[in-house]
Amino acid sequence: MATTVLEKPSLLSSTSGSESYRGFCNLLYVILAIGSFRLVLENILKYGLLVEFNWPLRFIKDPTNWPSVLLIILVNIFILIQFWLEVRLSRCSSRMYSFLFQMINLSSILIFPALYINHCQPNPAGAFIAVCSYSIVFLKLVSYTHVNYRCRQDLFEKKHDGIKQTKDCVVYPQNLTLRNLYYFIFAPTLCYQLNFPRSPCIRKNFICRRSAEILIIFSLQYCLSQQWILPILRTLDRPLNQYSILENIERLLRLALPNHFIWLLLFYAYFHSTLNLLAELLCFGDRLFYRDWWNATDLYEFW
Questions:
Q1: What are the transmembrane regions (predicted)?
Q2: CA distance 78 to 211
Q3: How deeply is 63 buried, as exposed, middle or buried, from its count of CB atoms within 10 A (0-12, 13-18, 19+)?
């Protein structure tokens, strides 16, 4: 009687049904680590150690940095104006004019930093941080204004008759306090709520870990930019249009790897370490700051 011999395809064949290639991924990680380490050694041997560790002193002594610090502090003026207008609106006094002033104040948040930077010409890095801060405050105040508007409409339509502030729940207009507003300003969210989800306590070990991550990652980013990117940029001794296409491509490829490292480190340092640190200090409960964008299949899902 003949016996049936089952075929056994190779594991790398499409018919094998094998889907586990973790070992190849580990091998790629090792190759990437070795290649990156070789580039680091080559860079140090070629240019020497270029990292300057006295940047905090240079930041303090550089007069172009202080206008950016002042610009960030001045954002509180717009926050306080918006708060004062919200309080006026809650009392039903000059509603139309107050709403108009709110729109003017929100528009000024976007216009003022541009005019200030154009006039003072501060350090580009500090100016970038200041503009980001103003953009975040603008988005937060838009949400703050919109939510309070909806609550005010509900209140005027008598939808909340008999509802009073309780120990665990804040209702409009009891939320119109500076403490409530500044909690939202510092909270890691752009969407205002009268009652945010809260965590029960502050974990000291968690704060220490996140703080250490922020310090190490930002230091690593600084070293990468000083040691790896600046030497490449310094080789550009003439405009890009005077180089050949192949030379421009070669420089872009040399910048691609450190640029990707810095952006990935920035993502982790800001969206994971910094926002989680803020959330822990403020006992903020909603910590879904990002999704698995690395598994995105299209640009819409990626963003």
A1: 21-41, 66-85, 97-117, 123-142, 261-284
A2: 30
A3: exposed
Shared domain check, 208 and 238: yes
SS3 238: coil
What amino acid occupies position 200? P
Is there a single domain that holds both residue 247 and residue 176?
no
**Count of the separate structural domains present in the chain:** 2
DSSP letter (8 states) at residue 47: H
Residues near 243 by Cβ (< 8 Å), separated by ≥ 6?
251
Residue 284: strand pairing partners: 198
Backbone angles phi, psi at 221, to 5 degrees: -60, -40
179 shares a domain with 86: yes
Residue pair 231/47 in contact (Cβ under 8 Å)? The answer is yes
Q: pLDDT of 231-240, one tens digit each?
A: 877 777 677 6
What's the angle, vertex CA 208, arms to CA 205 and CA 211, rounded to 5? 150
Pick the more confident residue, 173 or 272: 272
Lowest mean pLDDT, pick from 109-123, 128-142, 281-295 = 281-295
Last residue in a domain, options 131, 158, 186: 186
Look at residue 49 and tell me whether its pLDDT is greater than 80.
no
**Region 212-233: what's the mean pLDDT?**
85
Q: Would you say residue 215 lies in a domain?
A: yes
- Name the burial class of residue 297, with classes exposed (0-12), middle (13-18) and buried (19+) by CB atoms within 10 angstroms of its CB: exposed
Q: How far apart are CA 275 and CA 289, in angstroms?
A: 8
67 and 179, same domain (yes or no): yes
Place of tokens 């010409």: 121
Gap between the Cα atoms of 174 and 157, Å rounded? 17
